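Example record

One chain of 308 residues, shown exactly as stored in the release files.
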Amino acid sequence: MLGPVILAASRSDKMRRFVSAAPGTKQVVSRFIAGETVEQVIPIVKETVAKGLEVTLDVVGEDITTRDQAYAARDAYMELIEHLEDLGLGAKAEMSVKLSMFGQSLEGGHELALSNIRPVVEAAASIGTTVTLDAEDHTTLDSMFAIHEELRKDYPQTGCVIQAYLFRTEDDARRLADAGCRVRLVKGAYKEPETVAHQSKAEIDKAYVRILKILMEGEGYPMIGSHDPRLIAVTQELARRAGRKLDEYEFQMLYGIRSDEHVRLAAEGHRMRVYTAYGTDWYGYFMRRLAEKPANLLFFVRSMITKG
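Predicted structure tokens for this chain:
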């Protein structure tokens, strides 16, 4: 039951100040956040790719309140693309974006987010890579999917994320699978009401498998965002039944979590992409990682006590 409490805390300014000041925070944050600047994250990208893995890069910081902040988020991704071009990594290093960072929640936010994300998608395509639109809370999804559809008219490789815990997602999965989209399936990491989302782990897991089956049997490219050994095994079996080759889907896992499994799956011939976040505004992302797994929270508390 700790997960919903932590997710609520992720929106609290008071908790943000407390966690940021805690003596053990920096140690634990560095487990999930690869650095604060693009210069710090690039060596990690190079090291990750050298292991036979791929990456998707997320510049953290979705809680913006001004248009200038939205423009700054756009510019941060444009700077990242410049660095990736210098590395010549192509599709081995794609990007993930939260449209809230690009101004989606501001007045006129849908149009603002679309105008801000388009040059990022264009620049990504010019260096041989792409962008995936992350899913946020359920109130933002109609806008996200509309922007995704618009971008795919010119850049069909643009991906999106769907969340298994939402009731709507099976229908979304059918639509996206029929359209041949790149789709990352995750369980979901936002506090959602019982009117729109499954609340129990068992129901979420069942929904995940149902949706995964839809994606595997569809025309698109499934990206499996999970660290759960059972779901990884189910994925492999569903892919086999659907006749998919190893390069016709991929696994995605978070930086700092089950790193040995990243390497193992890649060694078996699977495409394995590491979701790698960086930036200074790490609080919301960090708190969702704590909410997803109680062991992460225990690790954090233990670090605070040790450093206290």
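Notes: The chain has a mean pLDDT of 88.
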